[in-house]
Every structure is written in C-alpha cells, then in structure tokens.
Amino acid sequence: MPRLAIGPGLPGRLSALAQPVRRDAVVALRRFLLNVAGAPHPERVRGARDSRVATLRLGEGHRGVVVRQRDVYWLRTVLPEAEAWSHARRHRYGINPVLGVVEVWDADALERVEPALRRSAGVTRLFDPICDGDLLALGIDVRALPLVRLITTEADVEALEPFLPPTQHAPLSALARGGSLSEAWRELDGWRAVDEEPRQIDTEDLYAALCRSPDQAVFVADKVELDRVLGAPEWCTFLRPPQYRLARAGRYEQPVLVIGGPGTGKTLVALHRAAHLAARGKGPVLLVTFSQSMGEDLAARLDTLIADEAVRKRVEVGNPERLAMRIVSEAEGRRPALMGPGARTLAELTDEALRLLSRTTGDLLDDVDPGRKPYRHIVVDDAQDYGPAQWRLLRAAAPHAHDDLFVLGDPHQRVSDTRVALGALGIPAEQRALRVSYRLSQEVLSFAVRLRGGGPVDGLVKGMSPLYGLRAERVGERPVVLAYESPEAELAGLAATVGAWLEEGVPPGEIAVAARTPALVRAARRALGDRDVRVSTFQGLKGLEFERVAVIGVSEGVVPETPPDDPAARARALQRERGMLYVACTRARSILYVSHSGRGSPFLSF
C-alpha cells in the first residue's frame, strides 16, 4: 500500500477545478491510496531534474505531480497536463542536512540565473570571508555552493529568494545583512517544526523528512483522512514551522507567553494549541478571547478543526467575565443581576469569583488535586487587553502544573488602557516570539509600523516591548493615503473606492471599512448604501482580516481624539490611539486605503 502525503497547495488546486474534474481526481486518489484496480500509476518525467518526480493521471486533462521514494508518494499539486509536465521538469527536491526537512528548489530558474550572476560577479564576493565548512554547517546544499560563491551583493541574495528553499535563503540573508554565523543559525533554526533535534539526519529518507515538515506534507492513511484533508481549510492542516513548534509542543513545564505582531498567526496557534491539549491533555480546556464576536468565530473554527465530537466538547470558548458569571451563578444557584436593584458590576463579580475559587480550592499554590479547578488547561488569545483582576481569575481557574497557561498577545495592538506584566501577578511565563507576518505585505506592515510609531510599549512583560524584528513574508501594493477637502467629499471617495473594488470582483465579505467614532461609522454606512461590506470602529475589527480595508476619517482632532492635559495620561492616551489605528490598518491582507478630510492626523506625519 502506498504511503501518501498531501502537499499544502493541493486542496486549493482541487477545489478550483470544475466539479466533474474534481470528482474524478478525488476518486482517482482514493483508488491510488487503496492500490486497487483502475488506480493511476506513476509515469516517468523525461528531462526531469529530479529522478524521483513522476505524474499521476487524475482526470480528464489533469495530472498530479508526485515525488516518490519506494512506497512513499508526496503529492505536490494537480495541474492541466502540459503545466504538470513542465512543473515536474522544473523542480528538484532535497532534504536539509541540518534540520532534516524537505526543500523545494526551482532548479530551472536557478540554472537561468547563474550566467547572469557569473557575469556580474565582482572581484570581491559577498561570502568570501566564510569558508565552505561554515556554510555547509548552516545547511547550505553542497550543490548550491558554486552559485553561492558567485553572489556579490545583498541584493543578489534577495533576488534569489523566490527560487531557493527558505531553509537555504534564511541563513544566507542573515549573513548578507552582516549577521554572524550564530545569527544565521538562529534564522535557520526558526524553520524547525519540532523541538527535538534528530540524532542523525538521513538525507535520503524522504518519509522521515516529510514527517518533520508539517507545513509541506500531511500523510493520509485512508479515504476518511484523505477526504478530511482535501475538504478542510488550509489553516486546519498546514502550520508554518514556528507555529507548529509552539502549538504542538509535547509539554511546557511553566506558563508560556507568545508575543507576535499582526498576521503572525497568534490566533491560529491558540486554536491548534487548544485542540492539541483537548486531544492529549489531562482535562477540560478554556480558550479565552477578548470579545463575544471573536468567541463565536473561534468556536466555529474549533468545530471545523476538531473532527472528534468528544474531543471538541473538552474545549470551551469564553472570556473572564463569562467565567466569573458562571462561577458565581453556580455558587449562588442563580444568575447575578447586572442591572437594577442589587446589581453588581463585572469587576465585583470577578472579585467574588476569585474569592469563591480560593475558598473551594484552598491556597492557590496548593494544587495537590488539580481536578478541583474548573479547567486543567487555559489558552489566552489577545492577552494584551486583560486587567489584573481578570488575570488573577484566570490564574486561579487552572492548577499550577505543566501546560497550565498558554498566553498569546501583542502589546502594540492593545485597544484598552491596561498595562499588566504577567510576572508581577505571579505568572512567571516563559517567553516565545512569532516574528513573520504571513497575512500582511511588507508595504502594509511597514506603513502600519510607522503609524504605530515603532517605539516600545509596556504590558505583558516586565519593562518595555520594542517593535523590531517583525517582517512580512511577501511584497505587495503600497497603501494609498488620500486627502479630501470636506467630509462629504471623503465619503463620496469611499463609496467610489469600495464600488470599484466590488466591480473588480472582490467579494463583499473580503472588504472592511473602519472609522474612529460611531458617528463616522454611521456616516460611512449611509454613504455605502446597500453595499454589503463590513463597517466598524477601529477596535471592532480586532482579530479579523480582510483582503482590502479602507480606514477613513484619519483627520486632525479625530485621530487622536483630544488627549488629556496631564502629561502621563496624555502619553497613555496617545499610545492607545496609535494602537487602535495600528489594529485597523493591519487587518488588510493586500490593499490598504487611508483617507482624511482637511488636515490629516499627526500620526500620518512620517
């Protein structure tokens, strides 16, 4: 029986096919997996740069491209026949000798680039000071060394990025920027998906390499698993190595704090960590999010992510206020009133819930019987916006044991006025980081960082958190900033822009409009009429993402609102205002449109 691994691009390719072709392709894959009569058989590719590459006929006019080694088949993509043969001849595949992960090389492009590099190579070349042994120790492929030796400038390295595996480009890019061998090693190590280092790397063992490469392959053992992988959204199945390493770690001995910028996948990691703990942990899991709407979204995504109903029931989605309400309600036998005579505030309910937990379990540090806690594991998303009382409640709701608290946040995206260091609350968290934005283009990210100010902020960790080291995976269009003479003209410009986006075929659900105040939100809705796009305040877009985003009313006196006179309060208010604008702008995957009427916000002066 073949061992079949599905590549990340395949489900999307299949879903884009016409229904009859897709149906035939899926049936062919089922037959191939079961090794029954009528199953497609691998066909050699003449002129292939990798002898292990073959194609499978999966339907009328379409073929799958596979990399095979004995009974292992890595199905990379499905394409029309001519494109499939070209793709199969163009690429070669390897195994990184340091990390043991698979590598995909655009061999055709590299062969065409080499003469140009040779012609432009100077007398002094970029990597002359580094010996072959050091480059090989960084996992640089021995067959690529002659090409690497031709590189003269940092620009050459960046130009090669589309054709190199990231495990090859990352250390070379670090060295090209003037980094040390240690810094280059750290860049390479960021592509490791598992914490355990293999004792020995067999660069001929494709199966082991695919198992170490969760972003590139997932094995399917039967028809049920095949259908699940082909039908699930890509985020359910394929995680980037840094994300996988955090979400699927076998055990954390103390609380973990993951700091990550916009688009780095914090919420995705939170979902997968909650699912992992539900499947392999020791008790009920609470996934905490900031808002009710985000809670509903996360619950729906967990329904998609976790196929086993029994495992799904082990994860509850909520927030500190909902947790406090539940604890007090169960203790008093009725739901506490929040309005009218005898009503209590949410802060009072939180304090009462903490008192009840302390009375029920005794000393909060005495966790001899973890089962007496409401939850065994707690995963907290958007952690930057919770206050001290909320954190104390969350800490009290789970035992002090391994895998108790897993926290994700970004102080720079804070939309509240809370500034809490976890260590000061008795939560000595081990800090990790996500530094690559997969959602944003570099242009949108750079623009948003300049808006944010780039300075350090406080919260979550002791001292100040700087905003550096964050980068995007791809390039895109530069954000557009337009000035209008009047609010009416600005709203007309918004209507024209959104109308043009819709005419281009952008789905309404992939467009969002954000404004600072509810009054501006209402005005934008009136201007857009029956165009069914999301219109919200800045903070209302928190946790969401869209293909295109229009941020309006970024004018003096509106963004920021008039700050207080007290210097300390003024600084905090301005930081919060920058944070809300930063959140709104970083919701855009591809196009960001910013407008103002009259004089623009001082935040735009960069």
UniProtKB/TrEMBL annotation:
Enumerate the UniProt keywords alphabetically.
ATP-binding, Helicase, Hydrolase, Nucleotide-binding
> Which terms does the record give in the GO molecular function aspect?
3'-5' DNA helicase activity; ATP binding; DNA binding; hydrolase activity
Which domain of life does the UniProt lineage start with?
Bacteria
Q: Which residues form the UvrD-like helicase C-terminal domain?
A: 531-596
- A GO-annotated cellular component: cytosol
GO annotation, biological process: recombinational repair
Question: Under what name is this protein listed?
Answer: AAA family ATPase
